[in-house]
Amino acid sequence: MKFGVYCLHEPLDESELASIEDTYGTAIDIVSVFRAWDRCSIEDDIPWLDRLKTSARDVLLTWEPWRLPEGAERPYDQPDFALKNIIAGRYDDYIQSFAGELSSFPRTVFLRVMHEMNGNWYPWCGTVNGNSPGDFLAAWVHIRNLVNSEATSSIQWVWSPYAHSYPPAHDNRIEAYFPGDGLIDWAAIDGYNWGCEREWSKWGSFEEIFSDAYNSVTALSRCPIMIGETACAEKGGSKALWIKEALQVIDTKFPRIEAVIWFDVNKECDWRIASSLKSLEAFRSGVKLFKRQA
After folding, report:
1. For a 10 Å CB count at each end of the chain, is N or C smaller?
2. What does the pLDDT look like over 52-67, one tens digit per residue?
3. Residue 6, exposed/middle/buried by CB under 10 A (0-12, 13-18, 19+)?
């Protein structure tokens, strides 16, 4: 079982990673990073890609076709990044240039493109910005073909829906976005316990959050599964108990999961494993069993 973290910035310095490992009591197998296309200029990417190549860990690279929004209002409303424009080739030069840089990676790159497509918060989601699930599938094939024309050996393709579709309509179900096992290497699921941090949220166990999506994904695909993003808020219940139970239930009820990536930042909520001493102690204790799992 592999464990990874996202820490808001790229923790590429080995001493920093070693410090995190010492604090959390486990090896970090995968470093998670996010990259928005923004200006779609490869010159913006080369410096951080070069730094990333020096890391001794595998990389989960979430590749986001959008411009990072300045505010939270309507972040999905970016018509330049509508899926039809990706399919039509507007960003082909950038995609191929980026793929050329990926071709020289010395370790595995888990390439997670257009994640959480069954939500309604990104410009590539299937129900916003003039998109449809069919457009997502066509854009996936288009991007995959371009990347694979430049880099294949180190790339593992990660298809990554959110645990719950928003809006919860039949046309927006996870199944509508599945490109087929021939076009992916991993399936990932994202999901969070928001606790009572928002007026619309409630406390939910790992099992409650992920079971339905896990059942859908395992029925669709034979590929290995990872949890691409997860974390737990502090308000609404015991975060320490949530962590303990999550690490246990993965072994007993989610046998196809082979990697878990923790969203280890203080952002919308304090998602960090070490948001409290009790949470940290629960993780340090539970991760020993988690890492022993085959």
Report:
1. C
2. 888 889 999 999 999 9
3. buried
